[in-house]
Amino acid sequence: MKEEPFIGREAEISVLKEALSRTEEGAPKMMLISGELGIGKTRLVNEARPHIEEEGFTYLHGKCYDKNSDPYLPLREAFDRYEHKEEELTPEVTGFFSAYPSSEHEDTRILRGEKKTMFHETLRRIRVLLDEQPLFVFLDDLQFGDKSTLNLIYYLSVNLRNEPILFTGAYDEEELQTNPPLRRIIQRMNEEGVLKEIELKSMTFGEIQTLLEKLIPSTGSSTKLIRFLHSRTGGNPLFIKEFVRYIVDEREIDLESFSTKDIRDISMPGAVTGILNKQIEDLHKRTRNVLQIGSVIGRKIEYPLILQVTDIDEFELLDELDTLTEKKLLREDSEDSFWFTHPLLMKVVYDSIPKLKKRKLHERTAEAMKEFKNKKVYINYLELADHYEKAGDLSLAFQYYYKAGKECEKIRAWRIAVDSYDKALQVIEGQDGEERYEEKKDIENRTKFLKDEIKEQEGKRVA
Ligand SMILES: Nc1ncnc2c1ncn2[C@@H]1O[C@H](COP(=O)(O)OP(=O)(O)O)[C@@H](O)[C@H]1O
Ligand SMILES: [Mg+2]
What we know:
Blueprint: H1 10-21, E1 30-35, H2 41-54, E2 58-63, H3 73-85, H4 93-98, H5 109-132, E3 135-140, H6 147-159, E4 165-172, H7 180-192, E5 195-199, H8 205-215, H9 223-233, H10 237-250, H11 260-265, H12 270-281, H13 285-297, E6 300-302, H14 303-309, H15 314-326, E7 330-332, E8 337-340, H16 343-351, H17 355-369, H18 377-391, H19 394-410, H20 414-428, H21 437-462
Parallel strand pairs: 1-4, 1-5, 2-3, 3-4
Antiparallel strand pairs: 6-8, 7-8
Helix pairs in contact: 1-2, 6-7, 8-9, 12-16, 13-15, 13-16, 14-17, 17-18, 18-19, 19-20, 20-21
The structure holds adenosine-5'-diphosphate and magnesium ion.
């Protein structure tokens, strides 16, 4: 792989530049960059660094590691770096942070008073620095920020309103719910009008293409590969890079001749599974169970269906779905359905279900689905067949693939009909007691007829 290309994000960079040019006009004082893990928050700010320094700002950065780590650590880290850089100006902002109590002691009134003095004093010291030069302070991974740090950041952003300083923070939106102090300061900064938010979106098809061309110039731009990456990774650059690394280095698949066959054997790179597993690891057992059932139902989870498949109380189920939505693992749409926010997440959850449980869940889903005929008939049959196949009931799977094929014929969806018939034959192949001579004969005749139809149609199109 070549050096690290950077794609797109022009709009976001210009928002940042605009904010830099207006630091002394009051707002915004805090730029908050949000988005899922791996979407490119840290990278975006790193890329903007040369520009920030060209504008005469001293670039400081610190990072939150853990809600329970030392208070003010990210700020201390940022200002420490500053001290190392400019020996003449060491106003001991850093040493100052460490002398003060953490959030654990927040409740005692004396400490509260002390803390106020400390906030004041920090403000004063930063002002001294600002007399010398403008500052840009990047605080990464605020989702792990402790209460003391977050409160101080809030205090500084409000009180340095008209000073040449810009704070920029980044946080994983999936984690926002787990950090109430962060939620609170976001709300308060909004009320104070000092906040500007940038939500980083996934890469588009075109951007993935450009990234790929830069990563491996020899690929040209295999549309199949881009489509595969787009659907698998949801346009997350971290996942895209992991997939590409995995496909090239571990699987040694030639990307130039990347084919649908290759796609079928590509599993998930370990790093990606690791990241996604972490997201579901901490869920309560009941919540995880609901998510697992969802993954059996599919990317779109119709509420009546999941209600039927789970046997928990309706309001408990709604609570669990609510938790999952808050954690951004699912999102709700206007038709009472829930969606996995990430296709990969669904796969990881699905893969985490033990074998027998998975079979039983497919069986239950199929049974429940029979009552909901809210889709086109053939789709319904195809889904049912798929659930029965995964439930291990090959006889019913056969029956529904066969039915789906016939329904497709009725609406002249010939290719899907052929695929359904193929599946029907596949599922009973070599199964004892599943000879079904007549049905097989019928399927063979139908398939032959359909293939001729398709050929003829293609001939017409070419002519
Ligand atoms: N716009 C981009 N173009 C190319 N690569 C990117 C882009 N944004 C992020 N990346 C790459 O994706 C990976 C994850 O980015 P990172 O900034 O660490 O994500 P986050 O901070 O949101 O978790 C890194 O390897 C980074 O270099
Ligand atoms: Mg990051």
